[in-house]
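ERR on first pass: missing label on line 2. Operator R.T. fixed the label and resubmitted. Corrected input:
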Amino acid sequence: MSKQKQSEGQTSVNNPADATLKSGKKRKRAAPKLEAGPLKGFAGKVTKFNEDDSIVAAPAEIHKEPVIDIAVTGYHSHEAEERSKRSQDQTSAKSVPKLRHRKTRPADTNAGVIKQPDYPRANKSREAVPPHLLKKRDALLPIRKSLPIWPQADTIKSSLKKNNILVLTGETGSGKSTQVPQFLASEPWCTKCIAITQPRRVAAISLARRVAEEMGTFMGGQSPAAKVGYSVRFDNATGPGTKIKFLTEGMLLQEMLRDPVMSQYSAIVVDEVHERSVNVDLILGFLKNLVEQMENGGSSKRKDPLKVVVMSATADVESLVKFFEDSRAPSSSALNAQIERRISTCFVEGRQYPVKTTYLPEPTQDWVESALKIIFQLHYKEPLPGDVLVFLTGQDAIEGLEKLVNDYAEGMDKDLLALPLFAALPQHAQQRIFQSTPFRTRKVILATNIAETSVTVPGVRYVIDCGKSKIKQFRNRLGLESLLVKPISRSAAIQRQGRAGREAAGQCYRLYTEEGFKTMDERTTPEILRCDLSQALLTMKARGVHDVLNFPFLDRPPREALEKALLQLLHLQALSDDGSISDVGLKIAKFPLTPTLGRVLVEAAKPERDCLLDVIDIISALSVENVFLNLVTEERKEEAEEARREIYRREGDHLTLLVTVQRYAEEQTDRKVWCEKHFVSHRAMQNVMNIRKQLQQQCTQLKLLSPDDDQSSSAPSEARSQAILQSVLRGFISNTARLMPDGSYKTLIGNQIVAIHPSSVLFGRKVEAIVFNEFVFTGKAWARGVSAVQLDWVSEVVESVM
DNA sequence: GAGCACTGC
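pass 2 clean. output:
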């Protein structure tokens, strides 16, 4: 395949002619091996693949779990325009016309990122849907008809006529994400919009694009007639005609805060529920309450019913049905007890090739070595094509194995290429997994669990699974999070294994024994059971749930965790003494920030502090990771220290970040060059500017900021530096420590010893007290994002809280 | 003188 073809990535499956061509080849290889899958609970149940099936086996899924946002190369002119608009937002300041740049204040230099729907081509497009859209739609119809979910359309429609809730289980490749919204859109009860939630931005965007094509309509803001749109942070592509709207879970939650009865929607489809993000758990709880309220007569704001479709990949139908069936606590009124809510269920088969699974005979500690052996065995035994995907725990193991594979391959033939894949890898390096390799070269992709759900690696036939992953765990007692290597669950192991059977029959090597597999947990522990709950609880309070302890949780967190979070919110004054949400709390809940950072923002807006714009800059920088590039060699590190000297501030990391953001925003000629010169991540800074702009807008809406407030661009005076750090302290009172006689630091709350992380500008310095952004435990307790503060400031805040 | 799985508003 030519390089150009490869770079088109997703597009090739969008083009039916191309798809036929490609799968024509694929069919030859795959057809003889098709048979029922060897494992129970595994989606290898398809026994017959006719010609059409094999043509369409992939597209819907490829769209559903798209690769990293590769630009889709053009086949529609407006798509191309839309794309170039988007890519402009993301490219360096260099590509933004200078004229526009000079005219704007620093605060606005990233103008255009938060897209307001406008219809530049409205006059042209209002007339009629262009023929090429209709042609495309017609070409896609036979593909849609051959999806496993297609025959279920009538069942799905009629069950939603009868009941308000449908639990739909559809395995990988069933086509549920693209088809279900279309089935619902033409139903008589569906007079308003349909929302479909997704855990990830890329999924929301590419699904919307696909459904727009299938329906032969424009996308989002392209035309008022567009029926399909999406809404993700910084990018809203919806219009007045939007009937089907894909959005991230976080976006729907924000909408729920503004409009608790979801008055613009006739139906809400919650997809990928099995991933069990905190947000999905909140959404399901809110929806259960809302449906209950509607069935009990509705509210003044809403009378028509709300239909809810819950879609999940694994077979956890029972727990979902039970969750929605249960009416309120038995003690509630007799009326409630009489209501017997009926929930419809539906199961759709997936489409997946069989995968042969092999276990180790004996357990091993050294996955890297076992993986290496298997990689080379496979390479010599199995014919090409067929790439290998290895699941490892983190960057260290990946880089270690990468070196080993490339070293060994060097000594033999040069036809095995190891490629790392993890989130912290720069975008261009991640893209290498999609590029074509030299003739007769086999790729070995070494990945973290980014490849489990977020990125679909093409061409994989062999999976090697170490059976572990790193998991962040919140420890209530200490109030700190730590990252631990833990065994994965059986469902995660099955998910990893499935990655070998997406394009043809495959093989999976598990670097553990069959006994080991059996002792794994069945499911991954839902996030809500292992994270800090303060943000989730504040969202609930803001949404009008007063009794959070009795919120309908799909999995109820331990009482201790809930109480800990409530206490934290009380300390932040987000809650009043009686537990109801305060004005401060309502403000904090509206920001896309943790309650602690939100509290800092609100504090900075007080007249006696008056440093809101500066604090927004700092918070924006704290919201992304690694503004400063991590350098490997000693030489480069020294170079960076020297180059950054002019932006480093003795007061600590918060003010250093402030100066960095200010300088970057002031830079009028070439921000990318400025970043390179100071060893700052340009990608991170672009993100910082997006967040900064959003926070400034939100502060203006909340009247914390007036539109004519001047953007300060000078480094802050000493008085303002104090105000900034005192505002930070107000949110981070539990993240403070004081210097002990022996030179160590001990936290004021909890008496925990912490050390200043070497990445801090305060590393190695001794000051009377510190406030820090983050507390990480990796062999030793580290404070990261540290600033020096006066001990009496800390005491002052502690006294006001206690 | 250390090291960081992955999302998202």
